[in-house]
Structure formats: structure tokens, C-alpha cells
């Protein structure tokens, strides 16, 4: 839990949509046509700023968890594969609630347009210190049907040209072919098919802040989520 002194609220008054509604249409079209989407100025910048402050507070107070690979009993730390630290979103702040509510709206749009049967959304803050990276990988094994669509929302304002830390998206049929390179600039939002789109995070030269998330189908068995978070 963050200390009560952490900035965790948004300004009073009517806020613009957390996610640009126009992006919903472009996002659905891109997922159908190519399996991935990247849009600039999609996330409200005031929301990005609030989430960025919250994540920085966590990093400064050493309350983030080192990220590993694998899930459940197969989870283990591998700094040679990924070097970020994380904190799962749990609606403990106004900014988190606003972001998660926007993802719930996006989930509804995706289910209505693509009949995906998306059941839930999970997400975590991701903080990459200078030098950290995440090697090329898929977010879900083919056929597991747990994570269906991955999302990444970027929080860093005014990312420098030499900052590194780009997410590289590769072609699903030719994993060595780069098809997009995403600068981790505040407001940028990316999503892609979890089982088919390889991607990686290049080494960053500055602290890099984002929210990684996944829309999942209901893969429960006997009341137990498969796999557990």
C-alpha cells in the first residue's frame, strides 16, 4: 500500500474521457487488420501525470516488486530477461480507478465489435530503471486462451530522443521483422494480440513508466483462475 501522503487524486470538475473514444474505432480496425495498434495522445495527459506521480512515489519509497517471468509455481526472477519492477493496480487511488474504468469501457467495445468474450482485465505499473530492458517474448502461450489482448499505456512526459526504452513490435509470422517501434511518451497507448505478437522493450536510458495490462477470457476451473496472477 502507498502511504497516505502519496498524490492519488485528480483535479475536481468534469474531466475529459480517460481514453479518447475515437481510438476505440481505430483500435478495433487495427487489431482485425494487423493484430496490433499504436496511438498517440490516446490517454488523457492529466491522468498520465497523476499515474506517473503515483508510480514515482512507489519507486522512491521502494514498494515495487521485482518482476519475474512465468506465473504461479513457474515464476522466477531473471534479470537477464527483464529488469522492471511492478505494482498491480487495485483501485487504491482515484487515478487507478479512472484508468481501470476506461479499460472496462474498452473491454465492452472489444466484446461488442469482435465477440471475444473478454472476461476481466488485470494491469500493473511497470518501472524500468536506467539500463533495464525486457527481451523479445509473447504474453501468452498459443492455445492457453488466458491473456487475449495486451495493452500498454505510457506515462513519461517529454521523453527525450536519446531516451531508449522503446517497445519493438514484431511481425507475427516473421518474428525477426520489426513492424513498429513505440516511444514511451505520455498519452501513447498500444495494444496487440497476446498470443501472436512478439515484442520487446529496448534498454532505457532514463526511468521509464508505463502500465501493462491484459484482457483475459474466463479460464477458471473449479473457481480458480488459470493461471493465477
Mean pLDDT: 88
- Give the structural class: alpha+beta
N-end to C-end Cα span: 18 Å
Number of strands: 11
User: Which segments are poorly predicted (pLDDT under 50) over 5 or more consecutive residues?
Assistant: 1-12, 224-229
Order of helices and strands: HEHEEHEEEEEEEE
Q: Which sheet architecture does the biggest sheet show?
A: 7 strands, antiparallel
Strand order of the largest sheet: 1-9-6-11-4-3-2
Task: Output the number of helix runs.
Answer: 3
Strand content: 25-35%
Domain Fe2OG dioxygenase: 114-217
Keywords: Dioxygenase, Iron, Metal-binding, Oxidoreductase, Vitamin C
Cofactor: L-ascorbate
Protein name: 2OG-Fe(II) oxygenase
SSE map:
Layout: H1 21-33, E1 36-39, H2 45-60, E2 65-66, E3 85-88, H3 94-114, E4 118-128, E5 134-137, E6 147-154, E7 167-170, E8 178-182, E9 189-193, E10 199-201, E11 208-217
Antiparallel strand pairs: 1-9, 2-3, 3-4, 4-11, 5-10, 6-9, 6-11, 7-8, 7-10
Helix pairs in contact: 2-3
Amino acid at each position: 500500500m502507498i502511504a497516505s501522503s502519496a498524490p492519488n487524486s485528480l483535479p475536481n470538475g468534469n474531466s475529459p474521457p480517460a481514453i479518447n473514444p475515437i481510438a476505440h474505432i481505430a483500435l478495433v480496425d487495427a487489431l482485425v487488420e494487423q493484430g496490433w495498434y499504436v496511438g498517440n495522445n490516446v490517454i488523457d495527459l492529466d491522468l498520465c501525470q497523476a499515474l506517473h506521480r503515483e508510480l514515482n512515489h512507489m519507486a522512491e519509497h521502494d514498494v515495487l516488486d521485482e518482476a519475474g517471468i512465468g506465473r504461479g509455481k513457474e515464476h522466477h526472477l531473471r534479470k537477464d530477461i527483464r529488469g522492471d519492477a511492478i505494482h498491480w493496480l487495485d483501485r487504491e487511488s482515484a487515478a487507478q480507478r479512472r484508468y481501470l474504468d476506461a479499460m472496462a469501457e474498452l473491454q465492452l467495445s472489444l466484446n461488442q465489435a469482435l465477440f471475444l468474450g473478454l472476461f476481466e482485465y488485470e494491469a500493473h505499473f511497470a518501472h524500468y530503471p536506467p539500463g533495464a530492458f525486457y527481451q523479445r517474448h509473447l504474453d501468452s502461450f498459443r492455445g492457453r486462451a488466458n491473456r487475449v489482448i495486451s495493452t500498454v499505456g505510457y506515462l513519461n512526459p517529454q521523453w527525450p530522443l536519446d531516451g531508449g526504452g522503446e517497445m519493438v513490435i514484431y511481425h507475427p509470422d516473421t518474428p525477426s521483422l520489426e513492424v513498429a517501434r513505440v516511444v514511451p511518451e505520455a498519452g501513447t497507448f498500444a495494444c496487440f494480440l497476446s498470443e501472436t505478437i512478439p515484442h520487446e522493450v529496448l534498454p532505457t536510458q532514463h526511468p521509464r513508466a508505463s502500465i501493462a495490462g491484459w484482457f483475459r477470457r474466463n479460464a477458471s476451473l473449479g473457481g480458480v483462475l488459470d493461471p493465477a496472477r
